[in-house]
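Practice set, problem 2.
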Amino acid sequence: MKKHALAWLLPCLIILVPYYAEAAGADEIQALKDQINILIQKVEALEARQQQIQAAGESKADNPASVGVSTAPLSVASVTPSQSATAQATGENSGNPAISVIGTFAGSAMRGGNAVHQRNFLPMSEGEFVFGAEVDAHTRLDVTVTAANGAMAAEEAYVTSRLPEGFHLRAGRKFIPLGRANETHPHALIYADTPNGLTNLFGPDKFIGEGVFLDHPLYIGESAHNLLLGFFQNANQVAFDPTATNRFSGMGRWTGMWDLNDTATLELGSTYINGNNGIAVNSRTDILGAHLALKNLEFDHSGWSIEGEWNRSCIGTSPGLARTITDGAYLLGEYDFNRNWQSFARADFSRMTGHQSETAYTGGLAWKVSEFQRLTVQYKHTRNALTESAARLGLAAGDSADEALFRWVVAIGPHGAHKY
């Protein structure tokens, strides 16, 4: 069968090469020749493998005492989709799971009110060890372990089960899918800090929960949508419980994406979270958020994007009393010169009941050396810092600060594509 494939494939290639020779340069012709050689090698390898299987079948026929070797001819029709998925999962998981290591080196210099100065030069702020593999045709396990400040912890650890009718069930510990920035690993973000709007809502760390999340994709016309329901517990000290006691919450989320043309997409989404906050008996916290992302990426990797989100946290101290309301938002603009160089600018806004509004402005340049390392330089100015932002900077509430940040992210090992 493979010889027949070569018999019709090679004449087609011979006919096509002169055509491309007129339309393409010498480099493209050489690249095409290299691809043809690789394709021929793959076909020959498959042919050799088929001959080995046939030889094993003939050996069994000559030796009736042999067991465990099938003499049935191979055919695509004889392999069901479930068998194919199982074989793929088993093949990936036949040895060790895919393991990657990501190191983040960060340096910063800050000058704030009351002559506060801070400087850090390229400490390894965080190391990530990512383990992932298909368990079988229906289930996948992903674990991310972080090492920071001399301690190690499971940042994310969850299992994904593919259910009938397109449902996906994720159970375990993971970033809460709120907006766009919170559920993205820090090293995958183009900027080196956390937007102040999220810091004032949830503190300097990610908003993480342990529970179950069920989602289902929907396709309406030429748009793609996703509906998610979740039930989880978390110990976030800012939005839910100052004593860092686990509290249960429920959530719902919708996202939708539209293709505007061949290179541009629009994403919209909203999230609602409700749970007991532990501040008083029967007191609760509501979080309502919305986000958008407009991207235009050309085929040469140049392009631009606008991304933003707004979230509001309403914290009740006890039933019937006034609630503490905190708003946090950011708007990010990014321009990609090519696949290696990107620039960005971001405006942050926060407001808390009974306090002045906080604003912050940041801009920077990122150099993507390769798929495995990226450097970012960034400047940030924060004005009228609220409680959480001030605590991160070591300032008094209401002070302002200027920061210069540098980040170098390096990775080894296989890793999946980052979220679009």
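Problem 2, part (b): a different protein.
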Amino acid sequence: MQWGLESRLAQIIKPDTNRTVMLAIDHGYFQGPTTGLEEPGKTVEALLPYCDALSPTKGILQYCIDPRTAPPIILRVSGGNSMARREELDDEILTCTAEEAVRLNAVGVSVSIYVGTEHQRQTIQNLARMADEAHKYGLVVLGISAVGTSLDELRQPGKEEELARYLALASRIAAEHGADISKTYYVPGHFDKVVGGCPVPIVLAGGKKVPEREALQFTSNAIRDGASGVDMGRNIFQSEAPAAMIQAVRSIVHEGKSPDEAYALYEELGG
């Protein structure tokens, strides 16, 4: 591993714990003014001290994030779709170059791959091309297992093993095509198989907003089963007490707190 890449990776995944708490705020690139991110700058201001890395788009980074106080940035570089045509969410292109990411002082870039969809080839190709370019500059590449609307079908009771096979496939494909970190979802009872089949660190996607206690539980389970941390968005910034929630998540990831201890901390800090 080249020195610059290793240095940037250490800014994301902290060497003392070998784990990370990343805050995802890139939802607007296809959802528009997502609940909780209507004014992104105000939303994240109180959260920045508690995240190890921030995952925005280039527009939000330039217009809403103070360059003097920003944490390490993992820049979203794939997109080109919207909720206006949900059936085409997998039809993504690269929306930013590695050179532009360097100009914006990002430590890494993120690219979604839609395995098993009509446009899987082009999204995997997006990742492979970006990994080749990004690694020339020593940038970390985050490969995201994006599943569109199909995740709801696979999350039905009784389909956990099928979901785990799918996410293991997608995570491994991300690593095979150049990702240094793979982002995917938690699968109860089978997540160790997803982690075990992927040669790069796996971080947990938060997914849809769920009750805080539930989010802390699956975070704890994922860390127990081998995840290197989280790249969480809605379960933090849509919480009733976002700053308290990210600190509770952090207590699990970096301090090994139990879900009960983390939830008690959330209630204490959130009033």
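Answer key, part (b): The two ends are 45 Å apart (CA to CA). Residues 3-202 form a domain with the TIM Barrel fold (CATH 3.20.20.70).
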